[in-house]
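Our preliminary data section would be incomplete without showing what the modeling component actually yields. Below, a chain of 147 amino acids is followed by its predicted structure, encoded as C-alpha cells that our downstream tools consume directly.
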Amino acid sequence: MQPDFWNDKRAPGVPNTIDLTTYSSVIEVFERSCKTFADRPAFSNMGITLTYAELERQSAAFAGYLQQHTDLKPGERIAVQMPNVLHYPIAVFGALRAGLIVVNTNPFIPRVKCATSSRMPACVRWSTSTCSVRVCRRCAPTRPSTT
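Predicted structure:
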C-alpha cells in the first residue's frame, strides 16, 4: 500500500500527518480523551451507554483493584477473555492503567488453556453464569523464588 493511499479518504479537517510526540503513551491519549469528551458517549451495548467520564472512573477503579488486591506487577501480562460487552473496555483500560500488558484472547477457548499458560499470570474473564467479570490467577506453579 502506498503511503499516500489514505490522503483523499479522510474526512475534511483530518490532517494527512500526525505529530507522534503529542502523546507519550496510549494511556495519555485515553485520559486526555476522557477529560475532553467526558459527557459524550464512549461505548454503547444492549441499550446501555457509558460516557467517557464513566469509563475513566470505572477503569481507574479496576486499575486500583488490580494494584491493591492482586499480586500482579506492572509489566506482567493479563489476558482479557470476554465477548463484546461494556466490561471489556473497562477491563482493558484498567489493566493498562495498572501498568499491565493486555493480551486479548478468544472468549470461546477453554479456561484451562488460558489459565495454565506460563506466560499469562492472570486472566480477566467474563462469567456467563453471573454476567460479571472475574480476575483469575493461573493454575500453573507459582514463579520460582529469586532468593
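The first strand starts at residue 41 and ends at 45. The radius of gyration is 18 Å. Preliminary results of this kind motivate Aim 1 of the renewal.
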